[in-house]
Specification:
about 90 residues, 1 helix
């Protein structure tokens, strides 16, 4: 009887250690999996931000080009208006 209880005590201790090992293995596996998923999410987020930044840069370049063209056109129109005004004043006198 006593031998049987000693064996069951050893088996209980073994089972306790197996349970501890299993729990540690499961937790560490979940930790590594979560970390990998988190890294993947951050890479996807960085790629999305970079794509938005590239689109924004392209739009800003278009706006700058339009502003430059418009300012040149405006300056040209302003100069031609001033010349016409001078011609009209010259013709009146």
């Amino acid at each position: 009887m006593q031998e049987a209880s000693i064996l069951t005590d050893k088996r209980r201790k073994q089972m306790d250690w197996i349970q501890v090992f299993t729990i540690l293995l499961a937790v560490s596996g979940l930790f590594l999996w979560t970390r990998r998923e988190s890294n993947q999410d951050s890479r996807e987020l960085r790629a999305a931000i970079a794509a938005l930044g590239n689109k924004l840069d392209a739009k800003l370049d278009n706006i700058r080009a339009d502003m430059t063209t418009e300012s040149r056109d405006f300056h040209g129109r302003l100069c031609s208006l001033e010349e016409r005004m001078k011609e009209k004043k010259g013709q009146e006198h």
